[in-house]
UniProtKB/TrEMBL annotation, chains A, B:
Homodimer. The keyword DNA-binding applies. Belongs to the class-I pyridoxal-phosphate-dependent aminotransferase family. CDD domains: AAT_like, WHTH_GntR. Residues 15-83 form the HTH gntR-type domain. Its cofactor is pyridoxal 5'-phosphate. It comes from the Bacteria. This is DNA-binding transcriptional MocR family regulator. GO terms for molecular function: DNA binding; DNA-binding transcription factor activity; pyridoxal phosphate binding; transaminase activity. Gene3D superfamilies: Aspartate Aminotransferase, domain 1, Type I PLP-dependent aspartate aminotransferase-like (Major domain), Winged helix-like DNA-binding domain superfamily/Winged helix DNA-binding domain. Keywords: Aminotransferase, DNA-binding, Pyridoxal phosphate, Transcription, Transcription regulation, Transferase.
Length: 485, 485
């Protein structure tokens, strides 16, 4: 059998070959495959090995030397430096964040992979105020069950095959019509992709649009898991404040002008975590700015239908004429979170690469879930359910606010929709201390700092009033405000 | 409102800051934000802008100069070079692969993102021989529908909430017991993660274990979408041949020794695309080699239950004592592909980072699909179904072989299980020509070259005999072998 050789090296977009060689050697040193004072392979042999030009390998070695990662001896040999030093503070800092790696196990490349929100939500507690999920008891489960049986009668082979990668044709046609009608804009089914929840939509868009060091813009505060995704992609993250009255558009423009972000990830309607809504007057202008500065807007609109008094302003997407907004509409949160259905709506330049990323990520969202969603969403019962749900959520918001009022120095702005209260604690109260003590009392909430792109503001907490029932909610917040730290 | 600044730059693991600055400037030039002969920001201002040390920015600019990307004028100013040149052939080659980018649309960072298999399978044809999916008519759809109704009676709130990120507890406990018993090895539920198909499992493991330029090992040929995933992560791909008698273990050992791959992605049982099975005698030895050379084995075992005469050898996973094998067991392919259920089984060092990647990718596989799968898989009917399915698939394989026999110079090895025939065409016949002409006749198949990690061997095709019914299959292959090009 003739030995096969490596595939020709492919250039990872944005990474030049000599940098890849550098990184490769660094990886081998970090994993202990090359030890202190060990001689590196010669330039000639590493070039052969990695199938790169000798100059490429030489350039990488020069860089390793410049950065103090290796030293030269006998004019020809490169050796691993005893203490990988760096004259640059940033590099030293970020290196020091790497945890110690065990020697005798498979070592993940991304040792820093993390998701703080996931860790907080993993902790089992009685008074769950960290989950921005709707209480399953508020969902029309029995009706849904009956309904699903009809879906199977109608599509007996629904579990027998994959759907298209872009999503079930019938569902996309329907959503297209629904959104075109409710927002009064023209749309085609090939401008819609179905993803497994908005989480997947954010992840795939990040993979499509970010490469290392690319600037992106987010709101401050923002959805923490989105932040982790952007960080993992190596984005440079800039932030604009979101307040009860929306953005400071001058600040937004300055950011767009100065940093030329690849995209602006926004959640302008019943914003997570604050509950704020960007006013209609700002939306059109923001889309103009996006087109002017060539910045894609990712508009995450998961809470639109969860309003309490009156419907929110129309999404920014409706003002977009040139394809600078991609619209994420997750319906499943308030219908059937277990289904994981989100519609991503955008123009060809966004949808085409997104589809390829989706095909590689999971080959398409399960067909069954899409058919169930489609038929339920079309039913009259669904509309009744949503109306009832609004009332129930408003009631829970009111309960939460009543109980929070006992803490006279805790401040928040009443949200007009959504699932969360964003509460400012008095300076004397430590969020970390409160969280630790709360967890001991089986109460959990989200510490606001994980929602801060700058990881600075440590005086807010997010309380989700949607997950536990009314009496538990009342009791949980009563106990929370009484907690002494 | 006080202006907020950027978050401190985070080091994307494996990418040093000056490289990130370099890439960032390259990106701006490629997107036309910095035009030919335009002056770059000064070192001082870019350092301020990117929040890096001035030396870091300087180093990046020096690199740009060295690589001919910019030129220096008036001793102080850096300007974009007219023709971004490179003295290195590889870099020039990979640059030329980048498509022309439109100026007035959001531009994906990964312009080279692609999935050839997806493109072939997208083409609608009558005689579909490119889909390695089981004919939905062979699946017990009516029983499944009845069955699902019971699932809803049993778990009325199953659509109301997310399951745990790692997967439904009950399902993981069950699979744990099932696999522990059938393979006679001890397992704990926290060693199991449920993913949305094995496609997602491969994607998440690639994200966890590969960084740019990392060597990995695959079989030659192999699953083409896995190749695309690994390429997108920037892996350097090495290959070992797989033949009717498995691997050449000397070649495998040489590869492990020489290239120190991060993992070996294997599909040793009714291998896709060839149908070959690695013999029992090699499996134990391969696991020993993996431990010796500290290489994770990703064992993709999607076709295990699709055997025709006798069950295949036990998986490599059973020989693993030190955590060097992660086992992907997708059951859904032959039960209900629309459910998208795969179990990833491994030790803590693999499972922990995988879980975080899963939480960021989609927050967990839908609970409904897991419960349906669980209850169906436990039923007696399922076992009967699988037995019948084996017979039906074997019959289709036989039909495919009978018809292929008409082409006396097409060669293949009879597979003992799985869904595909791997057919070697005579040298005179061009695969691309045959595919083009076949598509005109509404027949499609997978050209073997996309399964070749080295993109060289253009004399094989993959024929999937599982998707269309017997008479269509007979007719489709009859027409295929008669196709004149």
């Amino acid at each position: 059998m003739k030995p096969t050789t490596s595939a020709p090296p492919t250039r990872k977009d944005g990474h030049h070959l000599f940098q890849q060689v550098y990184e490769h050697i660094m990886g081998r040193m970090e994993r202990g495959e090359l030890k202190t004072h060990e001689k590196l392979p010669s330039v000639r042999s590493i070039a052969l090995d990695l199938q790169v030009h000798r100059l490429t390998a030489f350039r990488a070695y020069q860089m390793l030397k410049q950065n103090g990662k290796v030293y030269v001896k006998d004019k020809s040999g490169y050796y691993v430096s005893p203490t990988p030093s760096s004259d640059l503070k940033e590099e030293a800092n970020s290196n020091s964040e790497l945890p110690e790696l065990p020697a005798n196990q498979p070592i993940p490349a991304y040792a820093h992979l993390r998701n703080e929100l996931f860790h907080v939500q993993q902790i089992p507690v009685t008074y769950q105020l960290a989950q921005a999920l709707i209480d399953p008891n508020l969902l029309p489960n029995l009706f849904l069950s009956e309904h699903v049986k009809q879906v199977f009668d109608k599509y007996p082979k629904v579990m027998g095959t994959y759907g298209p990668v872009s999503g079930d044709e019938e569902l996309r046609e329907f959503l297209c019509g629904y959104i075109a009608k409710s927002l009064n804009i023209p749309l085609a089914a090939n401008e819609v992709v179905i993803t497994s929840g908005s989480q997947q939509a954010i992840d795939l868009l990040a993979r499509v649009f970010i490469r290392a060091m690319d600037p992106i813009l987010v709101e401050r505060p923002t959805y923490s898991a989105a932040l982790e995704i952007f960080r993992n992609q190596g984005a440079r993250i800039f932030a604009v404040d979101i307040g009860p009255n929306g953005y400071d558009l001058d600040q937004v423009e300055m950011m767009l002008k100065q940093h030329k972000p690849r995209f602006f990830y926004t959640n302008p309607t019943f914003h997570n975590p604050t509950g704020y809504t960007v006013p209609a007057s700002q939306r059109k202008r923001l889309v103009e700015l996006a087109a002017q500065y060539r910045c894609l807007i990712i508009e995450d609109d998961a809470f639109r239908d969860m309003y309490f008094e009156e419907p929110p302003p129309r999404p920014m997407f409706v003002y977009d004429t040139d394809g600078w907004v991609v619209y994420l509409r997750s319906f499943s949160k308030y219908i059937a979170p277990g289904l994981r259905i989100c519609a991503v709506i955008g123009r060809k330049s966004v949808i085409e690469p997104l589809l390829i990323a989706k095909s590689l990520a999971d080959n398409g969202t399960p067909l069954l879930n899409q058919k169930i969603f489609l038929h339920y969403f079309q039913s009259e019962r669904m509309q009744q359910h949503v109306a009832k749900l609004r009332t129930a959520l408003q009631l829970r918001r009111d309960i939460a606010e009543q109980e929070l009022a006992a803490a006279s120095d805790w401040k928040w702005v009443q949200p007009a929709g959504g699932l969360n209260l964003w509460v400012k604690l008095p300076p004397a109260l430590s969020v970390q201390g409160l969280l630790a003590e709360s967890l001991r009392q089986s109460i959990s909430f989200v510490p606001g700092v994980i929602c801060d792109p700058l990881s600075e503001r440590n005086d807010f907490i997010r309380i989700s009033y949607c997950f536990i029932n009314e009496s538990q909610l009342r009791e949980g917040i009563k106990r929370l405000v009484r907690t002494r730290v």
